[in-house]
Design a protein that fits this description.
single chain, alpha+beta, four-stranded antiparallel sheet, 4 strands, 42% helix
């Protein structure tokens, strides 16, 4: 009853208190940050390595197992999983819940640098990623050619246009962290050998492959202003 008597006797005071609560509530609600992907510390990291031309068995023995061996010495490692496929190795490391993932990934890179020279020469540099929802793409844009277009653009030219024009333009937009291009067709040259000609000249297919590799060189040609 005391609150009711106070409200009846002091209506202005009660009205001011209500207005203060409304103003504070509106101000707090309007300034609450909105984030589609809130920042979370997920204790999982992965190491991805490419080994073009190698089968799953070679990838597992020459790439995945050395990486697993050295990454197991990182602090707070809970579990290690791996996937070895043709030309690709993925090692997933699960850490304890209270692990500082920035420091953990730094340790992972240091451990990988210790055995990088022991990996096969054709492997790419192992890439270390933290499992972060913000790394997931939030927009996907498709580039297609119009069926009614009079231009003679083909699939290969469309792929080149997407890589060299569309992607750089999107990367220059403020707030864009990265752009990756998927799909499309890339120009390639195929060499079909005729067995009768090889037999006639007395050469093997491996000889032709070696000659093509020797002639396919990428050398510096000087400076261009």
């Amino acid at each position: 009853m005391g609150i009711i008597k106070t409200a009846v006797k002091r209506p202005v005071t009660v009205l001011m208190c209500v207005l203060v609560v409304i103003v504070i509530g509106y101000t707090s609600f309007s300034k609450i940050p909105l984030d589609l992907m809130p920042k979370m510390n997920i204790p999982i990291a992965l190491v991805q390595t490419s080994y073009e031309g190698a089968g799953p068995y070679e990838v597992e023995n020459l790439v995945t197992r050395p990486l697993e061996s050295v990454l197991s010495t990182v602090e707070n490692v809970k579990n290690i999983y791996s996937d070895s496929s043709e030309g690709s190795s993925i090692v997933i490391i699960e850490f304890s819940d209270d692990t500082d993932m920035d420091f953990a990934t730094l340790q992972m890179r240091e451990k990988i640098d210790m055995i990088k020279s022991a990996l096969p020469d054709d492997t790419t540099a192992p890439m270390v990623f933290k499992l972060d929802p913000n790394m997931m793409p939030i927009a996907m844009i498709s580039v297609t050619k119009s069926e009614t277009s009079k231009s003679e653009i083909n699939d290969i030219a469309l792929k080149s246009y997407s890589d060299n024009t569309v992607s750089p333009a999107l990367e220059r937009i403020a707030g864009v962290a990265g752009v990756s291009t998927l799909g499309g067709r890339t120009r390639e040259i195929r060499v079909n050998l005729r067995q009768d000609k090889l037999t006639g000249y007395g050469i093997s297919a491996n000889t032709v492959v070696s000659l093509l590799r020797a002639e396919n060189l990428n050398l510096p040609g000087g400076s261009v202003s």
